[in-house]
UniProtKB/TrEMBL annotation:
The keyword Transcription regulation applies. This is Transcription antitermination protein NusB. Pfam families: NusB. InterPro entries: NusB-like_sf, NusB_fam, NusB_RsmB_TIM44. One of its GO terms (molecular function) is RNA binding.
Length: 139
C-alpha cells in the first residue's frame, strides 16, 4: 500500500506535467496513480490534493509570489514550483500539520529539485505557515 509521501510525490509529478503543458492531466491522473500503485484512500488523497491545487492555482501562486524576494514565480524551476504549490495548498487548505508538510516538501526537493531547492522551499513554506493568513477551510 502506498504512503501519503508516495501520494504527494505522485501529485508533484502530475503538477509538473500540468505545468509543462499537459492540461489533460486531471483525466489521466487516476490511471497514472494506479500505475504507481497508489490506490484506494491514498489515491483519493492524491486526487484531492491535485484537484485542490489546480483549483486554487492563482491563489497559491499569489501567496508564493509574496515570499519571492525579487523573483518572479515563472523563474522558479517547474519541479520546485510544483512542490511549493502543493505545500502551500496543504498548509492553507488542509488539517495536516505544517511541520509534516514542510518536511515532505523538503524531501521532495532533495529528490527532484536543484541543489538549492530544499533550503529555498523550506524558507518559503516556513514563512507562509508563520504568516498564517491562509484560510483554515478543511477539504
Amino acid at each position: 500500500m502506498a504512503t501519503r509521501a508516495q501520494a504527494r510525490e505522485a501529485v508533484v509529478t502530475l503538477l509538473y506535467a500540468y505545468d509543462s503543458g499537459n492540461e489533460n492531466i486531471l483525466s489521466e491522473a487516476p490511471n497514472l496513480l494506479e500505475e504507481k500503485k497508489i490506490r484506494n484512500k491514498q489515491q483519493e488523497f492524491a486526487l484531492g490534493l491535485l484537484n485542490g491545487v489546480l483549483g486554487a492555482l492563482q491563489t497559491l501562486d499569489d501567496k508564493i509570489s509574496l515570499h519571492l524576494k525579487e523573483w518572479d514565480i515563472e523563474r522558479i524551476g517547474k519541479i520546485e514550483r510544483a512542490i511549493l504549490r502543493l505545500g502551500v495548498y496543504e498548509i492553507c487548505f488542509t488539517c495536516t500539520d505544517a511541520p509534516v508538510i514542510i518536511n515532505e516538501a523538503i524531501e521532495l526537493a532533495k529528490l527532484y529539485g536543484s541543489d538549492h531547492a530544499p533550503r529555498f522551499i523550506n524558507g518559503v513554506l516556513d514563512a507562509i505557515q508563520k504568516e498564517h493568513k491562509c484560510s483554515s477551510v478543511s477539504h
